[in-house]
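Quick one, T. Sequence first:
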Amino acid sequence: MRINNQTCTRCVNDKTIKHIHFDKKGVCNFCNSYDKLSSVLENQDYLDRLFQSKIKDHSHTYDVALGFSGGKDSTYVLYQLVHKYKLKVITYTLDNGFLSDEAKKKIDKLVKELGVPHEYVACDMELLKEMYKVMVEKYLSPCIACSFLGYAVMLNYATKVDAAIGIHGRSRAQMFRNYAEDVDDVFKPFIEEGLKEIPKPMNELVYTILDKIERLVHPSLAKMIKENLLKEGLEQGFREFVSFFIYHTYDKDEILQTLIQNTSWRVESEEEHFDCLIHHGALYLKDQIARRSHLMPEYSYLIRNGQMTKEEALKALAYVHNKKQAKLELKGLCQYAKISYPKVMLKAFIYKRRWW
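C-alpha cells:
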C-alpha cells in the first residue's frame, strides 16, 4: 500500500517534494512563498525599471555576456537584447561533452544572423568526468553537475571578456521550481538579490553560493568549481549576473512567434532540450528516484502564475518515457564518466522502492 502522499490543494506538489510542508488549508510552503513575492513579480513597471538599471553600464568591452544554448529561450533573449535594447552582446556556449549537432548548427547560424561574437567554452575533460561521476554516484543526477558547471562558467565569463553584466535565459518556472522562504536552496540568492534595487556585491554572493554548495551538495564539487572555473572572477571581481525572465514575462507562444517571424530558428527534432544528448536519460533517472515527474515543481509554478491549470499539469505529469532511448543515453553517460551502469540502475530502483 502506498504511503499517504498529501498533495497541495492549490498546485500539484506532493510529499515527494523535498522540504515541503502544508498549512491548515493544505497549501504548500512553495505556494505561500510565491504569494509573498507576487506583488514584485507582477509589478511590470518596477521590473522594467530594475532591468534598465542593470543594463545601463556601457563602459566595458561588451554590455552583456549571454549564455547561449541555441534553444528557443536563449535565442529569444539574444534577439531582444540586440534588437529591443540595442546592446553590444557577446555569446558563449558551454560544451559539456553532450552538446548535440543540432544545437551547434543552430548556434553557429544564429550568431552570424544576429551579428554577435560567440565562443564555445570547453572545460577540462577530466574535470567534466569527475563532476559527472561525483554527482551521479551520490545523487543519480548528471543535471546537478551541469547546473553548477554552467552557473560557474557563466559567473566567470562576464569578467573574463569584460562584459558589464552576465545574463542567462532560464525561465521563471526553472528559477522558482525550488523557491520557498524556508528552504535553503543554492540558487535562492540569485532570485532574491536579482529583485533588489541595490543587491549584495557579487563577490559576496558568489562566496555565499560556494558555501551553500559545500554544505548542501558536496564539498568536492565546491572545491572543483572554485579551483577550476572561477579564476578571472576571483582575481578581478565578479560582474552582476541575472535572469532575463525575472524581469520579463515568459510567454511561450510569444517567444515562438517572435522567433519564427524574425529569425531562422525552427523546431526540428524537439522543442525543448534538443541541445543535450543525454537529456532523456537524465530525466528518466531523476523521475525514477523522485518517484514522480521531475518537472512537477515547474508545473506547480505555472499553476501559481496562471499559465497552466491543475488539470493540464496532471495530464502533463502522466508523460511516459521512451525507456529504450533513456537507457541508451544513460549507458553513454556512464561509459563517458567511468560509472558502473548496473550500480546506477540498482541504486535508482532502491530509491524508488523506498516510497512503497
